[in-house]
Design the sequence.
């Protein structure tokens, strides 16, 4: 068992105001697709998943900061006074990127004045890349707590225009597309002994992390079925499972409707059969609550931790996968504590 555990989680999505609501409603198969107060080039309302409790006039960097506030506060509530490192990811193509980074850094400082903060535009790859150094910092006692999170929102005219211009905006007539969405999620890593000292219940532990890079991207014609980047990430993350004969019975992906990523996933699914338990459950929550962007991996941690805490998880081991438009891929194996 790892000496580092997930101590707490927080999330806000189109289906839930916190991690528990999100976990329960995703378990129930609740969809969040709705007509949004945003229009395409023809003036037609678009379909997307968005957080209805946020001010509908908020867009861009201000919306990202507003979206992140509640799940950050939820995750760090038990450790607000603990000196911590905080690492937050936003999408690599984030509009108003510098402003978004500044607002998120200011938000973290308000919530946790003593925290050391980094916010990076690394998309889905960011939170996974933060994990290995975070675990090392805790194991070597260079940090007492590490908070990792991600924030994403397609709720802006700029995002919708960009998706439509590239032919990626979901509609009844364009199913091979990205379903717009928004979400924010955070999780707290601490040494197991410190979690016990604070009288918290360990929720999960990280078994393995892997990264890779795909040749197939939006700007070229390389075959998505090659899937060497995601395959490398999954193999690296599942090495501890292979070493002792364990398997993952719960697979979480960030797939929406884009066939390019579906083809990639199909190749990896075939190659990963040895580490998949029987029976296994495959979930792609973005197909119900919209594209997750940089929030994908933190949301998967929140989902699995919540499921293990409340006893409805389909497996004690989960394999999560995510990837950004730039070709970066990350896989994380999580285990019930």
Sequence:
């Amino acid at each position: 068992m790892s000496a580092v555990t997930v101590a707490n989680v927080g999330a806000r999505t189109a289906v839930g105001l916190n991690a528990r609501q999100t976990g329960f409603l995703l378990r129930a198969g609740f969809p969040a697709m709705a007509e949004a107060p945003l229009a395409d080039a023809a003036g037609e309302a678009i379909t997307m998943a968005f957080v209805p409790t946020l001010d509908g006039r908020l867009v861009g960097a201000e919306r990202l900061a507003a979206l992140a506030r509640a799940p950050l506060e939820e995750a760090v509530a038990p450790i607000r006074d603990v000196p911590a490192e905080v690492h937050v990811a936003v999408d690599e193509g984030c509009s108003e990127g510098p402003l978004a980074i500044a607002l998120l850094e200011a938000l973290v400082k308000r919530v946790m004045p003593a925290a050391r903060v980094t916010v990076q535009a690394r998309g889905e790859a960011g939170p996974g890349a933060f994990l290995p150094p975070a675990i090392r910092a805790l194991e070597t006692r260079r940090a007492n707590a590490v908070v990792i999170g991600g924030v994403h929102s397609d709720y802006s005219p700029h995002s919708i225009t960009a998706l439509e211009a590239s032919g990626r905006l979901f509609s009844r007539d364009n199913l091979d597309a990205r379903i717009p969405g928004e979400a924010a999620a955070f999780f707290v890593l601490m040494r197991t002994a410190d979690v016990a000292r604070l009288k918290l219940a360990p929720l999960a532990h990280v078994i393995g992390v892997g990264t890779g890079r795909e040749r197939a991207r939006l700007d070229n014609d390389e075959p998505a079925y090659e899937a060497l980047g995601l395959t490398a990430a999954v193999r690296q993350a599942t090495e501890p499972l292979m070493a002792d004969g364990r398997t993952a019975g719960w697979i979480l992906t960030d797939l929406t409707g884009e066939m390019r990523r579906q083809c990639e996933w199909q190749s990896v699914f075939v190659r990963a059969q040895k580490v998949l338990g029987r029976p296994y459950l495959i979930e792609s929550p973005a197909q119900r609550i919209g594209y997750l962007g940089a929030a994908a991996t933190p949301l998967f941690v929140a989902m699995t931790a919540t499921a293990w805490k409340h006893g409805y998880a389909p497996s004690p081991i989960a394999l999560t996968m995510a990837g950004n438009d730039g070709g970066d891929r990350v896989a994380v194996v999580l285990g019930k504590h």
